[in-house]
Amino acid sequence: MNPIIKEKNFYSIEGCTFWPYIFINKELQDKRKELVINHERIHFKQQEELLVLFFYFIYGLNWFINFLWCWNSDKAYRRIVFEKEAYKYENDPDYIKNRKPYAWLSN
Ligand SMILES: [Zn+2]
């Protein structure tokens, strides 16, 4: 399934995914917007393969465990398995076509 992409006015975030939607900050420049959409498409796939709810559960738990290790919320966020995959491949527009299911397990 393809995501429904909506542009919104956000205060600080660039984008977020709540299956079946991807919300993108209206203020982003075109190049940046492409990259953020690509990043969010990876989260969209992750959410699909985890039936959405398990994605949020693992995401939150993973952040919390990371935070206990480093006491830094940004670092804890960057080390979430889903974010590692999304940041690693957000620059590759073809990644989503060739991505293997559950690829976040090996990033
Ligand atoms: Zn992300």
Structure characterization notes:
The protein has 107 residues and is α+β, with helices and mostly antiparallel strands. The protein is 53% helix and 13% strand. It has a 3-stranded mixed sheet, with helices on one face. Bound molecules: zinc ion (ZN).
Features:
single chain; 107 residues; alpha+beta; 3-stranded mixed beta sheet; 5 helices; 13% strand; globular; binds zinc ion
> How are the strands of the largest sheet arranged?
1-3-2
Query: What is the first-to-last residue Cα distance?
Result: 24 Å
Ligand identities: zinc ion
Question: Would you tell me the structural class of the helices and strands?
Answer: alpha+beta
Instruction: Give a count of the beta strands, DSSP E runs of length 2 or more.
Output: 3
Shape: globular
Largest sheet: 3 strands, mixed
> What does the oligomeric state look like here?
single chain
* Strand-residue proportion: 5-15%
> Compute the gyration radius: what is it?
14 Å
How do the helices and strands follow one another from N- to C-terminus?
A: EEEHHHHH
Uncertain spans, ≥5 residues at pLDDT below 50? none
Instruction: Note the total helix count.
Output: 5
- Calculate the mean pLDDT score and round it: 96
Residues in helix, %? 40-55%
